[in-house]
Amino acid sequence: MMVGNESAQPGLAAQLSTKQEMGWLVAVVLAFLAVHIVAGTIMMRASADEDRVSAHPVVSIVYD
Predict the structure, then answer these.
(1) What is each CA distance from 2 to 7, 9, 10, 13, 16, in whole angstroms?
(2) What does the DSSP 8-state code read for residue 59?
(3) How confident is the model at residue 16 (pLDDT cuts 50, 70, 90)?
(4) In the chain, where does DSSP find H-type helix?
(5) 8-to-14, 19, 20 alpha-carbon distances in Å
(6) Residue 54's CB: how many other CB atoms inside 10 A?
(7) Helix/strand/coil (H, E, C) string of 39-54?
(8) Is the pLDDT reported for residue 64 higher than 70?
(9) What's the pTM?
(10) Which residues in 2-25 are b (16+ Cβ under 10 Å) and which e?
(11) Cα–Cα dist 37/23, whole Å
């Protein structure tokens, strides 16, 4: 009877290990997406600010 219980334990340990690995994988993917969304937002705001600044023509004081 002990043999049956012992053989069931590695399967349970493998399931727990797989669930933990999937949890870590999901966490890494979500962190990757969050970082890229934040970086994209920062880059879009920076380019919008740059366009706004460069939209004003530079006027020289000297009109020779």
Answers:
(1) 9, 11, 13, 17, 21
(2) -
(3) confident
(4) 2-54
(5) 10, 17, 19
(6) 9
(7) HHHHHHHHHHHHHHHH
(8) no
(9) 0.54
(10) eeeeeeeeeeeeeeeeeeeeeeee
(11) 21
